[in-house]
Every structure is written in structure tokens, then in C-alpha cells.
Amino acid sequence: MPGASKDVRAALDRYKEAFDVLGAYVLDHGYTLRFAIEPKPNEPRGDILLPTAGHALAFINELEHPELVGINPEVGHEEMASLNYAHAISQALWHGKLFHIDLNGQNGPRYDQDLRFGAGNARGAFWVVDALEAGGYAGPVHFDYKPPRTEDDDGVWESAAACMRNYLILRDKVRAFRADPEVKAALAAARVGELAEPTLAAGETWADVAGFTPDIEGLAARGMAFERLDQLALEHLYGVR
Fold first, then answer.
1. For the chain, how big is the Rg over CA atoms in Å?
2. How far apart are CA 164 and CA 160, in angstroms?
3. In Å, how far are 1, 177, 181, 227, 231 from 240, measured between CA atoms?
């Protein structure tokens, strides 16, 4: 649409107002309802406000009752924008805002395809399940997919069962990957656990590290075992171990 056809800031004001009114209504009536925004970049033409998980999370922070609002990210919608869906749900979990998920499949940054879960980006689906497992997500797992129009009723039910079966297959593969001694050794070599350690020690401030000089040559000489980790993940995903 033409750029002048919409005042985006005013539109966001009205969007916020709607959620504020809904939030007040829910609280005044003592309901336990929560709201989940489903980001999407386009449908398939045009630009949609709050196109990604990051946009939606930023918007929620401006609401009068942000505790009532989270997100419902979809695989295809994030991948339509060439984004990493596993990263999106991990950040949503970090914010405590992953209220619901829509799982499906997508082939690259094209129109919304709604393939069965596991189709299209199989590696991405593997890391999605891994992110949910690692993040302790305990909410609903929903499959937002569309069987081909050529399917009869039996084919529709087959595709529904396939989504659930693919999720369970990937869950088993993810758990086997995380339990594999070779993977644990590669994770240790990659120093993944060190990322969880704060840069500043207890009681330290920026002033305590302002004069720190890193060992550039030592940092350049050490490997991170990322290729090893990636290869082990592929072997577990495709069952070639």
C-alpha cells in the first residue's frame, strides 16, 4: 500500500488501546484469559504491523497490562522473513512470553505455505524441538498446517498424525543428541557452558574490567568445535550414527 495511506504510529496507538481495553475488561471481570499475538510479515502481499516475534515483544512492553499478553509465533511466519524460529521462541521463553506455538513447515522466504511440521526445513524443526525441550516449555503444542487440497478425509487425518509423529520423532532425536557422550564432549570443547557465567564477578562494576586486555593470540588460536557439533546434530537428525 502507499506509504501515506497509514500513520504507523497512530495505528500502533489504536492497537495498544485495543489491548488495554481488553486487558481492563478481563481484570475487572476476574477472568483468567490471556492473549497471544501471532506475528506475520505479509499475507502474502503488503506489510503487516508487528511482523516478527521481536516486534511483538517490543509492542507488549508498552501495554498497560503486559502480563496478560504474550506471543504465538509460527514456524512459517518467522521463516518467511528469513529468521530463525528456534531463536524466536527462545527469546520469547526468556521474556516469559511464549504463551502458545504454531508448528508447521516452510520452504524459505516465500508465501505462507503451512506444510506439515518437519517438512521443508528439517534441520530447523530439529532445533525448534531442542529449544522447546531446553527452555522447559509446558504450554500447548499446536500444528497450524494445511493438507493439500487433493487429499480426501483419510489423507487429512494422515497429515494430522504425521505432524504429531514428526514432533515425537524429533523429540526422541533431540534427547538422544543431548545424551550422547560425544555431543557432551563437543559442547565442553565449544565452551557453551561458559556463556552462562556472568562477565562481572559478584560486586564488580565496569570500572573493574575497564583496563582488561584480552589475549588476542590465545583467542585466535583456540577452536570452538562448532563444525563438530553441527555434524553430530546432522547424524542424529538423519539417523546415520
1. 22
2. 7
3. 49, 12, 16, 17, 11
Q: In this structure, which amino acid lies at residue 240?
A: V
Per-position pLDDT tens, the chain of length 241: 667 888 999 999 999 999 999 999 999 999 999 999 999 999 878 899 999 999 999 999 999 999 999 999 999 999 999 999 999 999 999 999 999 999 999 998 888 999 999 999 999 999 999 999 999 999 999 999 999 999 999 999 999 999 999 999 999 999 999 999 999 999 999 999 999 999 999 999 999 999 889 899 988 888 888 999 999 999 999 998 7
Provide the β-strand partners of residue 105: 115
Virtual torsion, Cα 53, 57, 58, 60, nearest 10 deg = 140
The 8-class DSSP code of residue 161 comes to H
